[in-house]
Design brief:
Order of helices and strands: HHHHHHHH
Distance between the termini: 35 Å
Number of strands: 0
Number of helices: 8
Strand content: under 5%
Helix content: 55-70%
Shape: globular
Structural class: mainly alpha
């Protein structure tokens, strides 16, 4: 797959991606950095609004083509997960309950799928019930306490993210 910085335009342009990946703290705080961040915010907002058009106007075959290799495309899987994470975090930060958004979205999607499959108006009932168990993330990890296998397991379990795992591994190397 094409690396993130080489991909074609999506919500972010190549220039936007380069800024987010490579900009130092000084550049982010500069006048140019503020303008770039503002442009990115506007694109994100517009992209979220575009999903109503995408949902209503993009044909089923086009959606299916985009996701046809989903089970093998790890980048696409990670992108979908990141999009849901972003939306969840943004809605929760506004003091809203994500469930209040997710439940009607799933219900409407199920109605549309059922209607597409059956072809007529049908009444369906969707029961959305799930439990999310969060794990405590290590806030001040001591790299000497963990083996590389334990760091890998914490990463796999979601107790630390990739950035934290890399930091722990680099700290171990630096101590040697």
């Amino acid at each position: 797959m094409v690396s993130d910085s080489e991909r074609g335009r999506g919500v972010l342009s190549k220039k936007d991606r380069a800024f987010l990946f490579d900009a130092g703290s000084e550049e982010i705080k500069s006048s140019n950095g503020r303008v770039t961040r503002s442009r990115i915010r506007e694109r994100i907002y517009d992209s979220v609004l575009d999903f109503k058009i995408i949902q209503n106007e993009v044909e089923t075959r086009d959606r299916e083509t985009v996701f046809e290799d989903y089970s093998e495309d790890r980048d696409l899987q990670r992108g979908v997960t990141a999009a849901l994470m972003f939306l969840y975090q943004a809605i929760e930060e506004q003091g809203e309950e994500f469930e209040e958004v997710l439940t009607p979205a799933i219900e409407r999607a199920e109605q549309r799928v059922t209607q597409d499959d059956v072809g007529d108006d049908v009444n369906i009932e969707v029961d959305v019930d799930f439990t999310v168990e969060t794990k405590l993330v290590i806030s001040d990890p001591d790299p000497e306490k963990y083996s590389q296998e334990e760091i890998g397991q914490m990463l796999a379990d979601g107790r630390i993210d990739g950035k934290d795992a890399l930091g722990l591994l680099q700290a171990q190397v630096n101590e040697e």
